[in-house]
Amino acid sequence: MARMKDPAVRSQLIDRAAQLLAARQPVTLRSLVAGTGVSTMAVYTYFGGMDGLWTAMRQEGFTRLAARLAEVAPSADPVRDLAALGAAYLSNALAGPDLYRVMFDAGFDLENAAAADDTLHSLVRAVERAKVIGRFRDDVEPLGLATQSWIIGHGLASLVATGPLPRQALAQGVPLLTALFTGAGDDPGNCRRSVERGWRIPDV
Amino acid sequence: MARMKDPAVRSQLIDRAAQLLAARQPVTLRSLVAGTGVSTMAVYTYFGGMDGLWTAMRQEGFTRLAARLAEVAPSADPVRDLAALGAAYLSNALAGPDLYRVMFDAGFDLENAAAADDTLHSLVRAVERAKVIGRFRDDVEPLGLATQSWIIGHGLASLVATGPLPRQALAQGVPLLTALFTGAGDDPGNCRRSVERGWRIPDV
DNA sequence: CCCGATAACATAGCAAAGCTATGTATTGTG
DNA sequence: CACAATACATAGCTTTGCTATGTTATCGGG
User: Fold this and answer.
1) Torsion angle, CA of B72/B75/B80/B86, rounded to 10 degrees?
2) What is chain A's mean pLDDT, rounded?
3) Measured between alpha carbons, how far is B156 from B146 in angstroms, rounded to an integer?
4) C1' (C19) to CA (A76) span, angstroms
5) Is the CB of A28 under 7 A from strand C?
6) Chain A: which residues have CB within 8 Å of chain B?
7) What is the rounded CA–CA span in Å between residue A171 and residue A204?
8) How confident is residue B38, by pLDDT bands cut at 50, 70 and 90?
9) How many angstroms separate the Cα of B31 from the Cα of each of A28, B14, B28, B45, B58?
10) Is 90 exceeded by the pLDDT of residue B110?
11) What one-character DSSP code corresponds to residue A135?
12) Non-local CB neighbours of B102 within 8 Å, separated by 6+ positions
């Protein structure tokens, strides 16, 4: 009945946008299609305009974040896993600061909210596992503690990746998470060890 | 020898920009000067261009933040004061979410870094006072703990004011700060009370 | 007291931005 | 095989930030 959209063009445009973003070059309609051979109309057939492209970029950002978090294999130590998830979150933000900023830049669509919920879920599960083995108290609300971990991770990512704090400030993540998890009932010594073991990743 | 710049025009333009920002209307060169009676050149004589205007907006944001923080009168309970400073920080961010976002949006100039340092200083002083009266351990580094408090405040502000978390999530500030300050050596019961007394402000 | 130099300001217009109207080509379906 | 619907290119419109140029007002020195 008609021609079909070529999905390769769509991902090509997204990739090029991410590439421009990483190169600190302005992402404009014309600079996007410059190297691709397609015309400016492609952006409108595939994304409905530049706004649609930014929405797609946000989705791409959450997809990459989910991939990073999925790399964290659950271990026998859920507190370590929580710190490792935080480290993966930071690692993702530092790997693509501009893309990370785009994720939280403008209007939050329902799709982004769902993606953010997925991000939280992996944290919630780790908190629940920590409760099961008695590291956290019974009265700890998994969603609440997961949200608090997210707040710390996002605050650190935002201030370091695109803000005024230097990269060494990433080390603040260890005392922050240790204090949070100790407050949730974990033994201070064990907590510190678990967090330090999980936080290995992003100090590069 | 020459005409003098009129400072009133400068603040008029800044005010109008903040007004447009709060009304969620695009801040463009021509929309700025639309109601003022001045021409587009004014933006260039006063700010050197739109970038200069955004820099001035960031300064304005930090000025308002400093004013909010200055409203917090130091009391005999420095832990309460720390929580009150965090609440004032949140209150400022929620009063002008768009302006708050502008503050951390793009390039961080030296001036902004200095303003951010001033913000930190009020926190550092409160931490030092808490050490003096024995609420925090002697080995607590004031700058480190102040930075950690800032990370929490900014994470909360960013995720609530312009992000996916609902306004009720502000309540997460209490357990977060309580855990942080308890980890710094404060007695859990006293800490909770102090934080709750200081956190009164932003739950509106 | 006035005049010239200098800076503030208005006007007009340029390059590039996003977007749209229109025409062409291509592909799935009857 | 023919038709219709959709992808895509081309060209141009509107608005953006910015600048070149001319005009006017103001302060200091004679």
Assistant:
1) 20
2) 91
3) 15
4) 55
5) yes
6) 104, 108, 112-113, 116, 144, 147-148, 150-156, 158-159, 162-165, 169, 172, 175-176, 178-180, 182-184
7) 11
8) confident
9) 22, 13, 5, 17, 19
10) no
11) S
12) B21, B54, B57, B58, B61
Tens-digit pLDDT profile for residues A145-193? 999 999 999 999 999 988 889 999 999 999 999 999 999 999 999 999 9
- CB contact under 8 Å between B169 and A147, yes or no, is yes
* B-chain residues near A150 (CB < 8 A): 155, 159
Task: Name the residue among B186, B180, B204 with its Cα closest to residue B77.
Answer: B186
CA distances from A194 to A29, A143, B192 (A): 47, 21, 25
A5 pLDDT higher than 80: no
Alpha-carbon distance A58 to A63, whole Å? 9
Token pair 């970029």 is at which residue? A57
Residues B146-201: tens digit of each pLDDT: 999 999 999 999 999 888 899 999 999 999 999 999 999 999 999 999 999 999 86
How many CB atoms lie under 10 A from the CB of residue A24?
Answer: 8
Q: Does A204 score more than 60 pLDDT?
A: no
Q: Are the CB atoms for A123 and A146 separated by under 8 Å?
A: yes
Which region holds residue A159: left if phi is over 0, alpha if psi is between -120 and 50, else beta? alpha
Nearest protein residue to the C1' atom of C8, measured from CA:
B3
CA B195, distance to chain mean position in Å, is 19
